[in-house]
Structure formats: C-alpha cells, structure tokens
Amino acid sequence: MFYDELQQYSWDDTTAAIQAVTPERARAALAARHPTVDDFMALISPAAAPLLEQMAERSRRTTLERFGRTISMYIPLYVSNACTNHCVYCGFNHSNPLTRVTLTQEQVRAECEAIRRLGPFENLLIVSGEFPALNGVDYLEQVLHTARPYFNNLTIEVMPMKERDYRRLTHAGLNGVVCFQETYNEQAYRRYHPRGMKSIFKWRVNGFDRMGAAGLHKIGMGVLIGLEDWRTDVTMMARHLRYLRQRYWRTRYSINFPRMCPAEGGYTPNVVMTDRELAQLTFAFRIFDPDVDISYSTRESPQFRAGMLPLGVTSMSAGSRTEPGGYVSTPDALEQFTVTDSRTPEQVAAEIRALGYEPVWKDWDRTFDRPTPLP
Questions:
Q1: Helix 23-31 to helix 52-67 angle, to the nearest 10 degrees?
Q2: What does the alpha-carbon distance between residue 350 and residue 309 come to, in Å, rounded to a whole number?
Q3: What is the pLDDT of residue 292?
Q4: Burial class (CB in 10 A: 0-12, 13-18, 19+), 117
Q5: CA 324 centroid distance within chain
Q6: How far, in Å, CA of 309 to CA of 314, rounded?
Q7: Which residues have CB under 8 Å from 270's CB, separation 6+?
Q8: Using an 8 Å Cβ cutoff, are 308 and 317 in contact?
Q9: Which of 45, 48, 174, 222 could cross-link with 169 by S-S, CB 3.0 to 4.6 Å?
C-alpha cells in the first residue's frame, strides 16, 4: 500500500529540492509535454512564481480541452458533528464544548428536501465526524438510503473504513469518497492528531488503497493548507495521486486544497498561503494531471473563485452550511469552519453563466451505477 512507498521519500529532501529549483528548470517543467512529479515540484517552486501568467494560460487551455466550459456543482450535508478525535485545528475536536448533533433519518430527509429547494443539485457530499458508535457504517448506510431518492450522486467524507465496508455502502447508493490526509508529514501528523482513530497515520494514508480496491467510482484527496510546508505536502499528494492512478485506473479522482479558516478552539495556522500561491498550485496540478477534478469550496471568497473559474477549477460548492441541520434551521451546533462565500446557489450559478460557463448540477447517471460486488 502507499504507506510503504511513502517511506522512500524524505520530507526534508523534498523540501530542499523544491527550494533549489532554478528559473531555467521551472521553464523546462512548464514546457514538458507529460510532466513528472519532479516537473510538478518545479512548477510549485518559488522559482516558477514569475511564470504565473504562462502557467495560467496552459492550465486554461488544458481545462477547456478536457472539461469544456462547465463547472460541476455540489453541496455538502453535515449529518453529525460527534467525533472521538482530538484534532487540534478542527471545530469538531472532541474536547471542544459544543452541542453535539447526529441527525435522525427524519432530519436527514428534511435536510435533503431543503437542499432540493435551494437548487437542482444532484451531487451531494455527506459529511460526518468520526464517532463509530453514533455515525458508523450502519448509520451511514441508513443515511445513503434516505438521501438516494433525492440525489443521483452521493459522496461521503467520513472516517476511513475497511474495504468491505466501502463495498457494502456502494449497495446503498455510494458513488465516491472524499478523504483529507491533512498532512503527509508523519511526525507532525501525530502532533495534530494526539488521540482518536485519526491519530493512526498509516491507517488513514492506506485508506485510499482500500477505496480503490473496493472499486469506488470516484476518490477525492486533499491536504489542509496551514499545517506544514504546503509545497512539500502537495508534492506528497501528487506522488500519491500518480500511485493511485497506476493501480486503480478505473477510478476518477478529485483534489482540493482547503486553506485553514477560523474554527472553534482558536487554532492559528502555521502556514499562510496567499491567493497567488493557491493560483500557482492550481495551475501546476492541472498541468501535472489534466484529467483530475479540481474543486474549490465556499471556504474561498466569491472574488477569488470567480477569477479562478476559467483557469483550472472544475467543481464548486454553493449554498453550503457546515453544521448538522443547517439547511432547515439555524441550529445551536457550531460550524466546522467559516463559510466565506455565502451566496445562494442561484447567485453562484448566475455568475458562472455570466463568465461564459455552464453550471452542471448532474454528471452521473443511474444507468451506469453498478454497485461493487460483495466478496
């Protein structure tokens, strides 16, 4: 599994190699027809910063060739903020004194109906904290059954599972899984996740292999920008993505680079990524992997999302509420993170059209929905 391959890469050596990139090497990487991970490292390096306009143009052309003038729309549904983990940066941290809510199936149904009134969404991202006794596989199976009549494409962002559990959930309507590694720095990872199942680095990083082996239609990846050196972290993710593509080539992949926002608990990011740096990273990933879905959530501002929309982004959320029950009412439960783009789905869709692109609410058809056979 990937954990074993990851051991051959030194965090410090990778950081040094990125910083040592010369302007000539960056230009050669931009000209590469089939970029390697080394080329990707050059494109995200400080030496490539003056090439931002050229990178943007190649990213724009590549995205148009692969995706056309479309932006896939999705919306998250938070079903539980109960969590046994103690992630120091997260609002759902088990130690935080907040109201814990796990939605009943009746409440899940009400949230689905409220989301349908917001817009013609067909792509639903179901999000939950990690508390197996309350929101484990049995609960998630019920949620998927409840949500399936309302949405054609169901993705979960929950605790990492066993391969057989992923297979089981495909029979309840599951199409994809999103999982954020947070950071690939194993030593630092332990500091950020001192207790709970999430503290087991190897179990989490190998979870993507279990997803691939289970035959999931789509796997979403991401690192949390603000923990460790972002250039080194995303390089490890690029290596991980290439590894997964080689082994689970039938699966589609998406990536996200969430920049840390204020959360309950008051954690301050160690690293601040500028808008120009996020743009550079987005362009570099599009050049490195022309077919990967690059997603921007409502963490980012309306102005920045609009500016990046024609240059490499292929999916966006809209109208997001990041607390359980947030679409039906304004509950007591706190948000996991602060939403920066608070516009309605209709307003976001109108801007997308004004920019000459088409918001796509559905990119999945039940005709092609084939659950993975159970062993």
A1: 20
A2: 13
A3: 98
A4: exposed
A5: 19
A6: 7
A7: 226, 227, 228
A8: no
A9: 174
Q: Tens digits of per-residue pLDDT, 353-365?
A: 999 999 999 865 5
pLDDT number for residue 264: 45
Residue 63 has pLDDT above 60, yes or no: yes
Asked if pLDDT for residue 333 goes beyond 60, the answer is no
Quick check: pTM over 0.90? yes
3-state SS track over the chain: CHHHHHCCCCHHHHHHHHHCCCHHHHHHHHHCCCCCHHHHHHHCCHHHHHHHHHHHHHHHHHHHHHHCCEEEEEEEEEEECCCCCCCCCCCCCCCCCCCCCECCHHHHHHHHHHHHHHCCCCEEEEEECCCHHHHCHHHHHHHHHHHCCCCCEEEEECCCCCHHHHHHHHCCCEEEEEEEEECCCHHHHHHHCCCCHHHCHHHHHCHHHHHHHCCCCEEEEEECECCCCHHHHHHHHHHHHHHHHHHCCCCEEEEECCECCCCCCCCCCCCCCCHHHHHHHHHHHHHHCCCCEEEECCCCCHHHHHHHHHHCCCEEECCCCCCCCCCCCCCCCCCCCCCCCCCCHHHHHHHHHHCCCEEECCCCCHHHCCCCCCC
Beta-bridged to residue 73, according to DSSP, are 316
Across all residues in the chain, what is the average pLDDT? 92
